[in-house]
Amino acid sequence: MPSPRIGIYPGTFDPVTNGHMDIIARATKVVDKLIVGVAEHTGKDTLFSLDERLTTVRDEISHLGAAAKSEVEVCSFNSLLMTFAERVEASVIIRGLRAVSDFEYEFQMAGMNSRLNSEIETVFLMASDKHQFIASRFVKEIARLGGDISHFVAPRVKEKVILRFEELKS
């Protein structure tokens, strides 16, 4: 029997959006096991701590139900993505593309990753049309300015984002 095909979907997930969840559900159709890799050090100022992001992603994945076609695990990493991929024996990196502008960056990253380990393939999944414009940074900006983010994140995530901005105001 062939070994299971393990994929990694890496990201900051600050916060996890409906777009992320769409890619996660669809990625489970192409791998036997999906590891959602939450980046510990991103070079970005995050709204949520690593533990909060891990907890939120795990909570959201638990609500996938039948949409998940394979096992999904959530864990953090603080190394090069390819080092992490080698450690968990992944053969596939899953990346979501929202727009043409994402492609240039992702294409360059896939090329660099291939130079680091040519045995690990990068697979791009196009965001579904209703999620193409969702980005965590926009969700945070809309919420910070008091806008409605309910179309972009799950209700549980919306509550956490709103609460965090209320905490930051006080």
Overview of the molecule:
The protein contains six helices and five strands. The chain has about 170 residues and is an alpha/beta fold. The chain has a single domain, classed as HUPs (Rossmann fold), CATH 3.40.50.620. It has a five-stranded parallel beta sheet, with helices on both faces. The chain starts with 5 loop residues before the first strand and ends with a helix.
CATH superfamily: HUPs
Helix content: 40-55%
| Major sheet: arrangement of strands | 3-2-1-4-5
Which strand-content bin applies to the residues?
Answer: 15-25%
Radius of gyration: 16 Å
- Give the N-to-C terminal Cα separation: 57 Å
H and E order: EHEHEHEHEHH
CATH class: Alpha Beta
CATH level-3 fold name: Rossmann fold
Total separate domains: 1
Count of alpha/pi helices:
6
Detail the poorly predicted runs.
none
Largest sheet: 5 strands, parallel
Just name the CATH architecture.
Answer: 3-Layer(aba) Sandwich
What is the overall silhouette? globular
User: What structural category do the secondary elements indicate?
Assistant: alpha/beta
Assembly type of the shown chains? single chain
Give the total of beta strands: 5
Give the integer mean of the pLDDT values.
Answer: 91
